[in-house]
Every structure is written in structure tokens, then in C-alpha cells.
Specification:
Order of helices and strands of chain B: EHH
Structural class of chain A: alpha+beta
Strand content of chain B: 5-15%
Strand content of chain A: 25-35%
Largest sheet of chain B: none
Largest sheet of chain A: 5 strands, antiparallel
Structural class of chain B: mainly alpha
Radius of gyration of chain B: 19 Å
Helix content of chain B: 40-55%
Number of strands of chain A: 9
Oligomer: heterodimer
Number of strands of chain B: 1
Radius of gyration of chain A: 20 Å
Distance between the termini of chain B: 28 Å
Helix content of chain A: 25-40%
Chain lengths: 218, 78
């Protein structure tokens, strides 16, 4: 058996053991119970599983993982961990969490009322550039257009964002907006009406736990 | 004058394939990493990781395929 970690939340934010509430509403991966482990002021949600028995497509487990995290996230601020994060035992999980507990608690405390919205911006590029120079020029131009689109997405927030981050990759530009839970619907509506540069496509998702704004010391 | 753009809003009760793929992409890539504590020596874990690598590849491919095709170019005038 091994421990699969879902997310962590602040003990001070819940009035009862969260596992009791969760287990009655939702099951964990592969139908396993969702259990809780307390480390200082932190509560971690996990399931005990046998990895060798996870024979369904990984896609199903990823979606089940998401449902557990969302269930907790709808009730309180959480930090979700990358799927899958395994531990050999509860003791191993406890030790790993204890090492980061103060950082996680502080973050959850200061981000208790905010969520993360994500905007994935992409633009179609020429399939086969004639030369390396043309490729680099095309890439630079695409980058400039995406930056302009990101500015428009941020403007749609009307200054309501608590913070904003961007991350460029070869394929797209991802934007992360930190905003109050109450502002999510208004932002979705604003994005529907946003005017972006020609050729740009935007995929807006969320709300998510504000993981992008957490800086974990190594 | 900017051309009409495409903004897709995911979330809520959206169960579309694009929404599900976005969720999977997020779960695999956006979670916090607890350094130095992932066990890789349990029997069966390698199989899970291998499976997830395949999922990741198919997610990226499928997300690219979900993008609508560019509008056809006008044929050159003769």
C-alpha cells in the first residue's frame, strides 16, 4: 500500500475533520476513502492505495483526483499537489509536510479568500517557415501579439486582480490571475467580451487553487 | 480593427472533452511539487508514471487538435 496525496488545507479553516465531511460525499481514487493527516496547523488529504492495482486508464484517476481536490476547494482554501505524489507511509508524508508546513500554512492564511483563474493564449503560426530567420521572426512576432493579448486579458480584470503572472512556452502564453472568489463570474463575463488581437485564441479556466502564486523553498 | 477572436470559457458543470483535457493537463502540471519525497521504488509505480506520460502526450496533442483550423486562404487571382 502507498499514500497518494491530494491537497493540504489549514486546520484553522475547518470546524470539523474534513475527511468526515468528504467521505460521505465523495470517494477518492479507485473508490478509496479520503483520509486526513494533521501536521501542526496543516491538514493533508490522502488515500491509501495499491499502485499495482491501478489498472484503469490514468485519465480516469486524474479526473478522480481533481474531483477530490475540488470538493475540498469549494469549502476552503487549499494547495493541491501534483498528481501523482506518492509516499511509502503516513510517517513519510508527515515528515515531508512538516518540512514545508510553515510555508504552506502562511500561504493558505494569506490566500484564504482568493482563487486562480488561468488564461491560455495561443496563435496560429506558419506551418513551414522558409528559413531559420523567418522562423525566428515569426516566433518573435507571435510573442509580441500574445503579450498584447495578455495585456487585454489583464485589463478585463478592471484592476480587481490581487496579482498576475505569465509564463511563456513554445506553444502558448499562460496567464494566471489571482482574484477574490466573488469576482470569478464577473471576470468570466468580462473575458467573453474582451477584444483580443486578431488570430489569438484564449482558453479561460478556473477557479483553481492558487498554486501558481506559491513559492516553495527548495 | 482586430479580427473576431475566439474566447472559450471552461468551468462550472462543463463536461466537454476540452474541459476534461484541460483538467487533466492542470492536474499533471500545475500541482505543487513536494521535493524529495516522491517514492519511486514501489512495485507498480513505474507503470503508473508510464501511463501518465502517455496521457500527458495525448493531452497536449489533443489540446492542439482542439484548436479550430485557421480560416482558408483566398485563392490567388489569375
Amino acid at each position: 500500500m502507498a499514500i497518494l496525496l491530494y491537497c493540504a488545507l489549514r486546520a484553522a479553516d475547518v470546524s470539523e475533520p474534513p475527511a468526515d465531511r468528504l467521505s460521505s460525499d465523495i470517494r477518492g481514487i479507485a473508490g478509496a476513502p479520503v483520509e486526513s493527516l494533521r501536521t501542526g496547523g496543516l491538514i493533508a488529504l490522502y488515500s491509501e492505495l495499491e499502485p499495482a492495482k491501478l489498472t484503469s486508464p490514468a485519465r480516469e484517476y486524474a479526473l478522480q483526483f481533481h474531483r477530490v481536490v475540488q470538493q475540498a476547494f469549494q469549502a476552503t482554501a487549499v494547495v493541491s499537489f501534483r498528481f501523482p505524489t506518492w509516499f511509502a507511509s503516513r510517517d513519510a508524508l508527515q515528515a515531508a509536510l512538516a518540512a514545508k508546513a510553515s510555508v504552506l500554512e502562511e500561504f493558505l492564511s494569506t490566500h484564504a479568500d482568493v482563487v486562480q483563474m488561468e488564461i491560455r493564449l495561443s496563435i496560429e503560426r506558419p506551418a513551414a517557415p522558409a528559413s531559420g530567420t523567418e522562423y525566428l521572426q515569426s516566433r518573435r512576432q507571435a510573442g509580441e501579439v500574445l503579450e498584447s493579448a495578455a495585456a487585454a486579458c489583464r485589463a478585463a480584470l478592471g484592476g480587481h486582480e490581487r496579482s498576475w503572472r505569465q509564463r511563456a512556452s513554445d506553444r502558448d502564453l499562460r496567464c494566471f490571475a489571482l482574484l477574490a472568489r466573488a469576482d470569478v463570474e464577473a471576470y468570466r463575463n468580462a473575458m467573453q467580451a474582451a477584444v483580443l488581437p486578431g488570430g489569438v485564441r484564449a482558453l479561460v479556466s478556473g477557479p483553481w487553487p492558487p498554486n501558481e502564486f506559491l513559492e516553495m523553498p527548495s | 480593427m482586430p479580427e473576431p477572436q475566439q474566447v472559450t470559457i471552461l468551468g462550472g458543470d462543463d463536461q466537454s472533452e476540452l474541459s476534461l483535457l484541460d483538467i487533466i493537463d492542470h492536474v499533471l502540471n500545475a500541482g505543487v511539487v513536494l521535493q524529495g519525497s516522491v517514492v519511486i521504488s514501489l512495485a507498480g509505480v513505474d507503470l503508473v508514471y508510464l501511463g501518465l506520460n502517455l496521457v500527458l502526450t495525448s493531452v497536449e496533442t489533443a489540446l492542439r487538435q482542439m484548436q479550430p483550423p485557421p480560416p482558408p486562404k483566398s485563392p490567388p487571382r489569375r
